[in-house]
């Protein structure tokens, strides 16, 4: 019984892995049971069986991609202190992730955001939740850095979250579309500059 359960789990993991790679290249909406069955040398029933439906398979692919992103980008910050040390670790890991993406089409979350932003449904809702949690995590670390005096207290955390996210999305395009080998280093520099540890430099000169 245990062997059967282990085999079922391995089969499911194998299907999801292939599904994530295909979705990265073709988009989640183009993910079909037939194409997966052909790639996996399995029957259509064997592919859809562990999930119950194509929609659930798409959600499983989305969840796996988000898990991979969080493990690659958030995990390195867990061994640091909260606030600026965590943000610096996350920025370095984020830029490394963009450079050596595990997905054929670069950052899965960025690609899925472009694909799904105008398509209401469960996939979009699942992605919305994941991106919202990620942005909340960044905002919490920014607030912790402000509490520690490493960032100016009057800065809006959401402004900085938007800045970091915008730089990352630009870098993903520069790496994937433009083939710019300097993109990751540029993104790291710009992100760190936005999170300088000198509050007065961030705020700039005071107005008379």
From TrEMBL:
Key words of the record: DNA-binding, Transcription, Transcription regulation
MF-aspect GO terms: DNA binding
Domain HTH tetR-type: 9-69
Nucleotidyltransferase recorded as keyword: no
DNA-binding region as annotated in the record: 32-51
Pfam families: TetR_C_13
Protein name in the entry: TetR/AcrR family transcriptional regulator
Organism: Streptomyces actinomycinicus
């Amino acid at each position: 019984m245990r062997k059967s359960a282990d085999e079922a789990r391995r089969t499911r993991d194998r299907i999801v892995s292939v599904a994530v790679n295909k979705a990265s290249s073709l988009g989640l909406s183009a993910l079909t049971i037939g194409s997966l069955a052909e790639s996996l040398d399995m029957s259509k029933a064997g592919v859809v069986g562990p999930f119950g439906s194509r929609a659930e398979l798409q959600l499983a692919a989305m969840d796996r991609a988000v898990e991979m992103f969080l493990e690659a980008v958030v995990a390195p910050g867990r061994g640091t202190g909260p606030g600026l040390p965590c943000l610096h670790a996350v920025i370095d890991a984020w830029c490394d992730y963009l450079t050596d993406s595990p997905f054929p089409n670069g950052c899965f979350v960025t690609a899925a955001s472009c694909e799904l932003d105008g398509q209401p449904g469960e996939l979009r809702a699942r992605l919305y939740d994941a991106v919202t949690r990620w942005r909340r995590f960044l905002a919490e670390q920014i607030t912790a850095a402000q509490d520690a005096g490493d960032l100016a207290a009057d800065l809006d955390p959401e402004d900085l979250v938007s800045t970091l996210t915008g730089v990352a999305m630009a870098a993903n395009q520069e790496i994937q579309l433009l083939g710019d080998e300097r993109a990751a280093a540029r993104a790291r520099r710009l992100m760190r500059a936005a999170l300088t540890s000198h509050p007065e430099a961030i705020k700039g000169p005071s107005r008379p």
